[in-house]
From TrEMBL:
Organism: Nocardioides kribbensis
Lineage, opening ranks: Bacteria, Bacillati, Actinomycetota, Actinomycetes, Propionibacteriales
Main subcellular location of this protein, as a coarse class: membrane
Protein topology in the membrane: Single-pass membrane protein
Family membership: Belongs to the KdpC family.
Subcellular location: Cell membrane
Protein name from the UniProt record: Potassium-transporting ATPase KdpC subunit
């Protein structure tokens, strides 16, 4: 009987600890962090949304996209992002890479097909196609491309949008960021911001799927 009572007391004590931890870590802490984020960093907390004009917004109805997530682009007047293995492409509910190893025949065939496609679209030799033009990021949501891939697309975007190549190159430069803190990562080009700038400069009209 004493053993049963001791066990019951221990169980009740464990249950109280579980309930306290659930309330503290599962309710109070998330609410605190969310509240602080909404006050201190509302734009970032709401998804880093950007309007068609390139302005920050916290209203999803005004957003053209997120600065943190790439988008599928099927418009020769705009810059293409890197491939995506997230769902049908840049699906935030299915974020992942392809899980194909570097020696996978399937991956090698896929890369070769993408190289041929990019080379044909941009009018260059297959050897000039940069790696990020044919490989997906680990998340499948990478919003950036390399300056080399952006430069490769400049002639095609200029010809299709009616903008001078020099003007398009200037837009690319304006949307190119260097290494984080000067040492981390690689220089990168913000595709969404760049495409919105092209749309504005050329006076283009695009559909949601083309941004």
């Amino acid at each position: 009987m004493k053993t049963l009572l001791a066990f019951s007391r221990q169980s009740l004590a464990g249950l109280r600890v579980l309930l306290a931890a659930t309330l503290l870590l599962g309710v109070a802490y998330p609410l605190l962090v969310t509240g602080v984020a909404q006050v201190a960093f509302p734009w970032r907390a709401d998804g880093s949304l950007v309007t068609v004009e390139g302005e920050r917004t916290t209203d999803p109805d005004e957003a053209a996209g997120s600065a943190l997530v790439g988008q599928l682009v099927d418009d020769d007047r705009l810059f293409r992002p890197r491939p995506s293995a997230a769902g049908e492409g840049y699906d935030m509910l299915a974020t992942y890479g392809s899980n194909l190893g570097p020696e996978s025949p399937e991956l090698l065939d896929l890369i070769a097909a993408r190289q041929a496609e990019v080379a044909a679209r941009e009018g260059v030799d297959v050897a000039d196609v940069p790696p990020d033009a044919v490989t997906a990021s680990a998340s499948g949501l990478d919003p950036d491309i390399s300056p080399r891939y952006a430069a490769l697309q400049v002639p095609r975007v200029a010809a299709a949008s009616g903008l001078p190549e020099a003007a398009v190159r200037e837009l690319v430069a304006e949307h190119t960021a260097g290494r984080t803190l000067g040492v981390l990562g690689e220089p990168r080009v913000d595709v969404l911001g760049l495409n919105l700038a092209v749309v504005d400069a050329a006076g283009l009209e695009t559909t949601g799927g083309d941004r």
